[in-house]
Amino acid sequence: MSKKIAIVTGASRGIGRAIAKMLAENNYIVIANYFRSEEEATDLQNKFDNIDIFKADVSKREDVKKLVEYTLNKYKKIDILVNNAGIDQEKLFQEITDEDWNSVINTNLFSVFCTTQEVVKNMIHNKNGCIINMSSIWGLVGASCESIYSISKAGIDAMTKSLAKELGPSNIRVNSIAPGFIDTDMNKEYSKDDINNIKQDIPLQKIGQPEDIAKCVKWLVEDEYTTGQVIAIDGGWQIH
Ligand code: NAD
């Protein structure tokens, strides 16, 4: 059987990097998308024969088209899409500008719409596919001072559920993963004290590691009967 082909967006660091590594270690061919961190992406490629890298701003349709064209020209099919790229923003609601709205919504939500749209044509043709969208617990419960971020992630979850219904008959599974507090650069502004306070609120008393999310991705790509779910991986922090 031919090897499965996976695109992971925002894969040069953090959660995306852990997912790319986990899939590569399990014999998938990974196209690791990056935007700015060329050095980290090249380092990832150098460590694995089955990781290929491609620069694209996934908030831009023309870049996404190039990423998908590159993958299909070289590997002929796409089995797995992990829409991981995202940015965070903390601001009081009344201070949010239109530019903030456009930046977060385009990067977090339009990117998922656009990348999925470009990839799914091939998946429908093959009657096979697994799409995993990186959401957040804040999409489920809302976060104070992170309203656009929460809106973008709730939008992703609605897209997940709608597409699971629409694409199920084409044998395409669509799920969201909603991480809690994960130890990546996205949270580098938090002080040691902040993190200790957060840990005390988490039933499992620890923050998550990128590998905790990658393990769920591995499970979802191997599973054959789960679709339309939002799977929270947060140590029990925001049980809803
Ligand atoms: P991170 O900042 O380390 O990684 C985000 C990645 O996305 C980076 O590699 C960045 O370059 C990439 N990216 C951003 N904009 C892009 C664009 N336009 N095109 C291509 N790539 C782009 O953060 P992370 O924690 O690894 O976040 C990964 C995903 O997990 C995000 O969607 C984030 O919202 C989600 N998430 C993270 C946490 C957490 O606590 N770290 C919690 C919940 C959800």
Compile the SSE list and pairings.
Layout: E1 5-8, H1 14-25, E2 29-34, H2 38-47, E3 51-55, H3 61-75, E4 80-83, H4 98-126, E5 129-134, H5 137-141, H6 147-167, E6 172-179, H7 192-201, H8 210-222, E7 230-233
Parallel strand pairs: 1-2, 1-4, 2-3, 4-5, 5-6, 6-7
Helix pairs in contact: 1-8, 3-4, 4-6
Describe what this molecule looks like in 3D.
- The relative contact order is 0.14.
- The longest helix is centred in the middle third of the chain and has 29 residues, at 98-126.
- The chain has helices spanning 14-25, 38-47, 61-75, 98-126, 137-141, 147-167, 192-201, 210-222; strands at residues 5-8, 29-34, 51-55, 80-83, 129-134, 172-179, 230-233.
- The protein has a 7-stranded parallel sheet, with helices on both faces.
- Helix 4 links the parallel strand 4 and strand 5.
- The protein is an alpha/beta fold and 240 residues long.
- It has a single domain (5-233), classed as Rossmann fold, CATH 3.40.50.
- It binds nicotinamide-adenine-dinucleotide (NAD).
- Residues 9-10, 12-16, 33, 35-37, 57-59, 84-87, 107, 134, 136, 179, 181-182, 184-187 line the site of nicotinamide-adenine-dinucleotide.
List the keywords.
single chain, 240 residues, alpha/beta, Rossmann fold, 7-stranded parallel beta sheet, 48% helix, globular, binds nicotinamide-adenine-dinucleotide
Strand proportion: 15-25%
> If classified by CATH, what would the architecture be?
3-Layer(aba) Sandwich
Q: What bound compounds does this protein have?
A: nicotinamide-adenine-dinucleotide
Regarding CATH, which class? Alpha Beta
Distance between the termini: 41 Å
Characterize the biggest β-sheet.
7 strands, parallel
What count of helical segments does DSSP give?
A: 8
What is the CATH homologous superfamily assignment?
Answer: NAD(P)-binding Rossmann-like Domain
| CATH topology category name | Rossmann fold
Q: Unreliable stretches, pLDDT < 50, 5 or more residues?
A: none
Structural class per helix/strand content? alpha/beta
Q: Assign an overall shape.
A: globular
Helical content (DSSP H or I, runs of 4+)? 40-55%
Mean of residue pLDDT values: 98
